[in-house]
Amino acid sequence: MERLDCVVKSDMKELLFDEETIKNRVEELGKEITKHYENDESELVVVGILRGSTLFFADLIRNINLPILIDFMAISSYGNTSESGVVKIVKDLEADVTGKNILIVEDIIDTGKTLKYLLNYFRERGAKTVKISSMLDKPKRRLVEISGDFVGFEVPNDFIVGYGLDYNQSYRNLPYIISLKEEVYKKLLQRTDSFKTSIFK
Ligand code: IMP
Ligand code: MG
What is the β-pairing status of strands 44-50 and 101-109? Predict the structure, then answer.
């Protein structure tokens, strides 16, 4: 067995979405997005949030049958998942968003803090509209009121990796989406206050 497969086999709790399922869903999302914007003359800027959205982003934009611009932002969120989480921009946009339609592409909506911050950010800078496309949604963990406009799948309150999502920067290159066994991500919990507070409630 290849090395990556070995690791996945020992760390995986459940295979949530295989390659074919992801491909079909991303095609549907691309069609929904195309339909939503097709009669809007304003420029559409699709903004990928690094690094988790990269695989989804690359697949999704190939399914948007409209002229678009692309840009990227990187966000860090200290104590991201706790009440006190602070969101900070690590890499800002290059595009001017004034009067444009912005589609934010994220990997997962968890507490919702990152997206809430980004919605305000784009509105303050005069975007015409701001919508959210997230591959995954973990609604049980929500701390602020936020919902995606074009969402791939709902996931359980587990630690999810693959298709761009990481655990300690690993697993991002898996072409499918899995949940990790508790003992695997517990190591992370011991180092941060992140998931400790709410995941084991
Ligand atoms: P939020 O601000 O709490 O919604 O944080 C969203 C970010 O946390 C995502 O963009 C991910 O990078 C990260 N995240 C949240 N849940 C998971 C998970 O289950 N696996 C991997 N990353 C996650
Ligand atoms: Mg992320």
Answer: parallel
Residue owning tokens 């339909």: 35
SS3 content of the chain, % helix, strand, coil (to 5): 30, 30, 35
State the sign of the Cα–Cα–Cα–Cα dihedral 124, 126, 130, 136. negative
Residue (of 29, 33, 38) closest to 56 by Cα position: 29
Tell me: the pLDDT tens digits for 44-71? Answer: 999 999 999 999 999 999 999 999 999 9
Compute the distance between CA of residue 166 and CA of residue 159 in angstroms, rounded to an integer.
9
CA of 39 to the centre of ligand 2 (A): 30
Tell how far the Cα of 100 is from the centroid of ligand 1, in angstroms. Answer: 27
18 is catalytic: no
The reply to whether ligand 1 has any atom less than 6 angstroms from the CB of 81 is yes
Q: Record the pTM.
A: 0.91
- The CA distance from 179 to 158, in Å, is 6
> Measured in whole angstroms, how far is the alpha carbon of residue 47 from the centre of its chain?
11
Please write down the HEC assignment for all residues of 159-172: CEEECCECECCECC
